[in-house]
Every structure is written in C-alpha cells, then in structure tokens.
Amino acid sequence: MATAHRPDTLTRERASELVRAWAGGRPGPLGSVLGRLTAVDQVGVELRVDSLKKRSIKKASKVWALDLAIRMMDLTTLEGKDTPGKIRALCQKAMTPQPGDPSIPSVAAICVYPALIADAKDALKGSTVKVASVATGFPSGQTFRDIKIAEVRAAVAAGADEIDMVIDRGAFLSGDYGTVFDEIVEVKDACGEAHLKVILETGELETYDNVRRASILAMAAGADFIKTSTGKVAPAATLPVTLVMFEAIRDFEKATGRAVGMKPAGGIRTAKEAIQYLVVLYETLGPRWMTPDRFRFGASSLLNDVLMQLEKERTGRYQDPDQFTLD
C-alpha cells in the first residue's frame, strides 16, 4: 500500500483533538462528544442506496470495474480447518487468479489467521500481494487486552503487512467509548509499520447512528481503514451500512485532513454486488478512493464470479464454473 495514503501515527491527545474537531470543537469527555454526533437519516441513506443500485453501467466501464474489483480484493480464508496447503493454494490463486491469462491482475492481499502468516509470506514471495492477518481475539474480541496486543505484535513479527482487528463491541454498546478508543490506539502502536484495519462488526452495532459513531471513533484512534464485518455475524456488509461509513470517512477527512480507507467484508458474493459497491464509493468519496490503497473487498467467494463476468463481458460467453479453481 502506498505510504502517501497512510495517516500519521496519532497520540491519544491528538486523536482526542481530532474527535472534538470533527464534532465541531465542542468540549467534553470522549463519550460525551461521540454521544452528540449528528444522527443518521435512515430513510435518506436507504433511498440513496436504492437509487445508486439502479445506475446503468456501460460495457467498457463494467470491464474496468471488474478488473478494479479484483485488484481491490482481500482473498480470505478464516476457518478452523485451514491448513498450510490450503493457504499456499489460495496464495497461488491470489497471484494468478486465472492461470494462463496474464491480463488478469493479482488481488490486493490474502487474509488469514496469525498462525498461517509465515506460510502465506513464503508462498507470496516476490509478488505484490500483501498478507493481512486478523487479530485481537477475532472474531469476538472477548479476551484480555494484553493478549490482544501480544497477538498483534506476534502477527507483525511473523510478517503481516496488515492487521485486521476487532473492536470490543460490548464496551462500545455499554457506552464505554474510552476503552474502545484506548484499545485501538494501543493496537495501532503495536502494529508498527503494518497497516491497521478496524473491524466494527456492524451487524452487532444495532443502528446506523452507532455505525457512524464507531467509524469516527476508530478513525480518530488511528485506523488506516475501517471495516464492516468479520464475516462471522449476520448481517455482514450491506450497502446502506457501507454508505454510512463512506459518509463518515468523507466528513472526517474534511474536518481533519486525514484520508481513511474502507473495507466492506462478508456476504459480497457476486460481480453485480461488487460493481454496486464501487458505484456508491465513487459517488460518495470520488475517484481518489478508487484504488486498493483506499478500498478493499473482504471476500472468500467473490473472485470466481468476477472472473466469470469479466470473461462474459470480453467474449460474450460464460465459462463453465469448473474452469476455475476453488477459492
């Protein structure tokens, strides 16, 4: 990922200043400031998404969008039955999604559990594909903070380029924003040079207002990306939730000058859905975010459908699904 897009490392004091700046400079403790953020217009968000989903995309633009979707993908496997062999096979697919067709780009990253980072790094040697690792007690986040920090440091030491952490949703929903904020700051520090994606687990946050609040909190604490979901909770990524997070990113950058990336993850399975996300991204954050440095898809089953649709757009024919390796 391009270092030019990476936010500066934040101190707690500076991050708290950013929260107050985003909230209009109003004084008060962190929890009070976050509690007074502007409410989300639920009807407006859902109508906006419905309108953008109906946009007609010309063939040339569709081919470009499908190619971009591949380059933005974090190809993911997060199962208890993951093995070094499975990781190596997935890494090969990440580097050459369609063997024999060099026009198909590699994906942005592969996302795995910490114990499998070394296998992924070895398999990806010499490629541009990054290794992302989940951490901090994924997916629940319900463990001791010192264990979370130790896991992050171990993942970075094993070679992770990116860390996908989960927030403490229990603390957040209890209104203990300070605990969530401090934990993100400590994890960011433990990441060193690795980029930090903060998973909000929006399916457990209950309201759009909470999604907005958690987004601002994570960005102020130093997140390089904010991410919707672990993929282990339903609902996972949805377009309305993603729009709420896009708008928080837009408003946060306007107020603070910091550009933060976005990663919807979980439940995005078709090329049609991926293009819809890219349309909403473009219309909300503009062309500067149409890059893997600022947008990712977290996906385990999206790639093959995108490859099939790309072949359809290029040749007018669908390929047999058996022509593709399993993700």
Which characteristics define this entry?
single chain; 327 residues; alpha/beta; TIM Barrel; 8-stranded parallel beta sheet; 13 helices; 8 strands; disordered N terminus
| CATH homology group | Aldolase class I
**CATH class, anyone?**
Alpha Beta
H/E element sequence: HHHHEHEHEHEHHEHEHEHEH
Structural class: alpha/beta
Beta-strand residue percentage: 5-15%
CATH architecture: Alpha-Beta Barrel
Number of helices: 13
State the major sheet: 8 strands, parallel
* CATH T-level topology: TIM Barrel
Structural domain tally: 1
| Mean pLDDT level | 90
Q: How many β strands by DSSP?
A: 8
Distance between the termini: 23 Å
Percent of residues in helices: 40-55%
Shape: globular
Q: Main sheet: which strands, in order across?
A: 7-6-5-4-3-2-1-8
Give a verbal description of the structure.
- It is a single chain.
- This protein has a single domain, classed as TIM Barrel, CATH 3.20.20.70.
- The chain starts with 11 loop residues before the first helix and ends in a 12-residue tail after the last helix.
- It is globular, with a radius of gyration of 19 Å.
- Strand 6, helix 11 and strand 7 (261-263) form a beta-alpha-beta unit.
- With 327 residues, the chain is of the alpha/beta class.
- It contains 13 helices and eight strands.
- The longest helix is centred in the last third of the chain and has 18 residues, at 239-256.
- It has helices spanning 12-22, 30-35, 42-53, 59-71, 84-95, 117-123, 145-157, 169-173, 177-191, 208-220, 239-256, 271-285, 302-315, and strands at 73-76, 109-112, 130-135, 162-166, 195-199, 225-227, 261-263, 297-299.
- Helix 4 runs antiparallel to helix 13 (302-315).
- Strands 7-6-5-4-3-2-1-8 form an eight-stranded parallel beta sheet.
